[in-house]
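Hi R.,

Here's the chain you asked about this morning:
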Amino acid sequence: MRSTARLFAVSFCLLVGLSGLVYGQATGSFSGTVSDKAGAVISGANVRITSQATGLTREAKTDDSGHYLIPLLLPTSYTIHVEAPGFAPAEQRDVRLQIDEHSELDFTLQPASVSTSVEVNATEVAVETANPTLGQVITSE
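And the predicted structure, written out as tokens:
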């Protein structure tokens, strides 16, 4: 009886201890670098990953070296959206993540377009159209 209880306790501890490892293999991750057109890294860029199956969203920011990492994602298709101040946003759709896959996706952001508007305000000059003469006063100064 005592050996059966020990065997049960050891088996139970092994199952509980290994269950986390079995679950951990069913996830994947996305990582990569965000840079500009010239190749300089962009720190503080917002990376948003949305599951196309469930609509759940996870976000991360790039570090000082422009690198991001979003771990523990379920295998499915994702949309990845990257944006940073002063740059046009970039997006990749239908990115498939498999079980235990660690996918690296780099993004290159283009500078945001700059639009300038000029507004001119002026008042009309009254023109005398009935009298064809031109007059001007000239002083001694």
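The helical segments are 2-24.

Let me know if you need anything else.
M.
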